[in-house]
Amino acid sequence: MKAISKYGLFMAALAVALAGCAPAATARATPSGPRTLTVMTHDSFALSADVKAEFEAAHNVTVQFLLSGDSGEALGKAILAYGQPLADVFYGVDNTFLSRALDENIFEAYNSPLLADIPDVFELDPQRRALPVNYGDVCLNYDKAYFAERGLRPPANLEDLVLPAYRDLTVVENPATSSPGMAFLLATIGHFGEDGYLNYWAALRANGVVVVNDWETAYYTEFSGSSGAGPRPIVVSYGSSPPFEVIYADPPITDAPTAAVTGAGSCFRQIEFVGILTGTPNRDLAEAWVDFMLSPRFQADMPLQMFVFPVNPNAALDPTFVKYLAVPDAPVSVDPKAIAANREAWIEAWTAAVLR
Length: 356
Known about the structure:
Blueprint: H1 6-21, H2 25-29, E1 35-41, H3 49-59, E2 61-67, H4 71-80, E3 89-94, H5 98-103, E4 107-108, E5 131-143, H6 144-150, E6 170-173, H7 179-192, H8 197-206, E7 210-212, H9 215-222, E8 234-238, H10 241-247, E9 258-260, E10 268-277, H11 283-294, H12 296-306, E11 309-310, H13 319-324, H14 336-354
Parallel strand pairs: 1-2, 1-3, 6-7, 6-8
Antiparallel strand pairs: 3-10, 4-10, 5-8, 5-9, 5-10, 5-11
């Protein structure tokens, strides 16, 4: 064997020592990229690209949205994945499904500092597992021209719909297949009580109400307002529908052709919530996203994207909303626990009374 000089041994030892102290070359050449945050939501979710990009840049993160069906279907998927969540955050459970989400413990509590800006009326979970993001009122809408041309007073409340003068004028959605249909059913339950709502629906049926499966058919086929060509001038829609008639009119118009009925007890308020899914490995990013959803920047983007309204009063609304939006002073509310306990029974009783 060839002998190794003392100088060679020294240099070899020095090389090993230096190698142990220096960072790996590959680590220097490959900086860590952005993390990924997954937000599970219903299919109606929409967000402006620049708003999404602003959050991603601020937190060095890529946000991906997992669209998972309608609100009920998405919640079911989140419940089935308990403990091994499909996403970090879930947005879109509303007050008709809230108690189910809370009973299944799919959310981790988070006391966002942005809640200080949100009115208490929107906070339905005192443990702050589900945090309010937006609201919308399901209300009757009517075709203003129809009533003006006939000298007939537009409906002012639910009771008007069963009067002889309003026979064959109303179209509603089936609560078993439609979210606004379910909200309207809850409005009648909250207004007339469990002992009176079926009598009201029987009177509606006798007065010629038409039931369709979805909002699109009701609004665009049966309704006589500017967006539809149907024969009926009263439809179950949203309090936000009249402003949107102006915003999206082609050619442009300056006055809403429809109006919402906002009399006491005639609208049902839907509130949508966001929560951090139990077991997320990205708790810090999930908290940041929840804060972002409650911030004025995100909140101001929602009305033109999802036809809903911000719960943060610091968010600026489009001037058209301010001009044409009619917000009910006394919307109907039904305890989320009562909804969870009775939803299917109420729908079955409604189906027997109205469709059979």
